[in-house]
Automatic annotation (TrEMBL):
This protein's UniProt keywords: Signal
UniProt cross-references to Gene3D superfamilies, sorted A to Z: Nitrogenase molybdenum iron protein domain (3.40.50.1980)
Originating species: Chitinophaga solisilvae
Origin: domain of life: Bacteria
Pfam family, one: Peripla_BP_2
NCBIfam families xrefs: TroA_like
Protein name: ABC transporter substrate-binding protein
Keyword Disulfide bond annotated: no
């Protein structure tokens, strides 16, 4: 009972001092997130809790990381996130930034204690959203499942943080690059496109990507043909299906190619037989739920066309410098 009274007192206190938009104030920023929720701020957010790592990545690209007061718990527990982010932010290196939730869950009490004016998440219950909004804390839900969503969400976060010009610049650059890749891919006859199989990490070699996915977008921009035609995001298949598809090339998500070479039943698959198995790693540089879907497409195109590793990596380095700026970008590319 004492805990309930303390929580109620905290809610009353924060409702009086949180710098979010009030019903009687004129909204300076109003937009709708990908899930249809109206997001309102009377000025750009100054204190942000971000519980979805692709959106945290976008905040670093927008050079607004100084506004972060809370980050996803995965940032500390997942080496693929901790290593690069600890390199560019000493608060993460020293684990000084609060972790009031994750991509899947949010600790409402911990969020409130940080007194943010904006919370960015992937999932949050309607009740939690309503409670935060009643205290003047805006909530933005993101998805980052498709290329168009990634660009919209970047531009939305640009508006919400006061980095609209930077967001527009990065979005324009990304669109220009993808348009160029799309034109090049369109010039390749369907019969000449390498049949490509994509597989996710952690030994899940039979977990692939369907046509309704960001990684499928990457494959199309790279000018290759996804052998999986299922209209879903991440379908599971079996060895017989993979053998029947007989891909020319396999792209793996941060796993060793030996996972395929060790399976005798797959030895006659063209990609296995010709050792045309490639790996997108470190994963941070090729996250398809961020603007770095572009770098993933560049590497896949390089493998499909026989480009040298150094040439495709140089293109990736240039993009990382563009996305993060010279200071942060130069720190990050030491990991490539």
């Amino acid at each position: 009972m004492k805990h309930i009274f303390m929580m109620a007192a905290l809610l009353v206190y924060l409702s009086a001092c949180t710098p979010g938009q009030r019903p009687d104030e004129e909204a300076a920023i109003t937009l709708t997130d990908i899930q249809g929720n109206k997001v309102v701020l009377n000025k750009p957010a100054e204190k942000i809790v971000c519980l979805f790592d692709p959106m945290m990545d976008a905040i670093y690209m927008l050079q607004m990381q100084h506004k972060l007061v809370g980050i996803p718990a995965e940032t500390y527990s997942d080496k693929e996130l901790f290593t690069p982010f600890s390199l560019i932010d000493e608060r993460i290196r020293d684990k000084r930034l609060a972790i009031p939730g994750s991509n899947e869950t949010a600790n409402l009490e911990s969020i409130i204690a940080l007194k943010p004016d904006l919370v960015i998440a992937k999932h949050m219950s309607a009740g939690s959203i309503r409670s935060l909004r009643e205290m003047g804390i805006a909530v933005y839900l993101a998805s980052s499942e498709k290329y168009s969503q990634v660009l919209k969400e970047l531009e939305d976060i640009g508006q919400l943080t006061g980095a609209g010009e930077r967001a527009a610049e990065l979005a324009a650059y990304t669109r220009q690059q993808f348009d160029a890749m799309q034109s090049a891919a369109a010039a390749v006859p369907e019969k000449d496109r390498k049949k490509t199989y994509f597989t996710w990490a952690h030994g899940r070699i039979y977990a692939t990507t369907g046509r309704n996915s960001m990684m499928n977008d990457c494959l199309e921009f790279a000018g290759v043909r996804n052998v999986c035609t299922a209209p879903v995001d991440q379908p599971d298949i079996n060895a017989e299906t993979l053998i029947s598809w007989n891909p020319d090339m396999i792209v793996m998500w941060n796993d060793p190619a030996d996972l395929f070479y060790a399976k005798k039943e797959l030895s006659r698959v063209t990609a296995v037989e010709k050792k045309a198995i490639f790996n997108l790693m470190p994963m941070f540089f090729y996250n398809p739920h961020t603007l770095k879907s572009l770098t993933a497409a560049v590497r896949i195109r390089g493998w499909a066309t026989g480009q040298t590793t150094e040439a495709s990596l140089e293109a990736v380095r240039e993009m990382i410098l563009k996305y993060y700026g010279p200071t942060t970008g130069n720190q990050l590319i030491t990991l490539l």
